[in-house]
Write a structure and sequence with these properties.
The chain is an all-alpha fold. 57% of the residues lie in helices and 0% in strands.
Amino acid sequence: MATQQSTRPEPNPEIDPIWTSSRTARQIYVLGEVEKDISALLSVAASSIAHLTLPQTDGPEDGLPQGGERSEQFVIEVGKYFEYVNEIQLSIRSSLAHIRSSRIAPSAINAPPPGFIPPSLGVSLPSSSSGNFATTDNGGRGLQEERVERDAWVGILNALTRLKEVKDRERAQQQEIEALL
């Protein structure tokens, strides 16, 4: 039987020990890795679809192969896609088997309230009106979105400050020239 090459990167040897402390913690860590695999799966799917486009529509920055090489690359990308699908389904099935074997009572698994929309990156700023589930008061944005918005505003402020400094220097130079005349 041939051994399969996994598309998943080798496990990080610097994994927080909390994730290796119990079987349940390892299963939660594996589900976190599944989430990363789903992202990689979508990336491979996008790459595969890009190889299906007509070569005439390729931009110079796309870097897609031409001719027969394009078909070969498509086959490789589709192979990666199915490897990811297989790894994801195995991990999810393994986690479900763990939940079944642990005989976790259904009442122990708290479902979110109706209409709950989780933040896109799984982390959000707490809200006092939300009870046990973290939501944000700003339309459901998570902590990462808040940081991106903050950084964007800081960038805008820096750009405006630099623009003002340039204008002030130009104005000062103009006044010096007018004073000399």
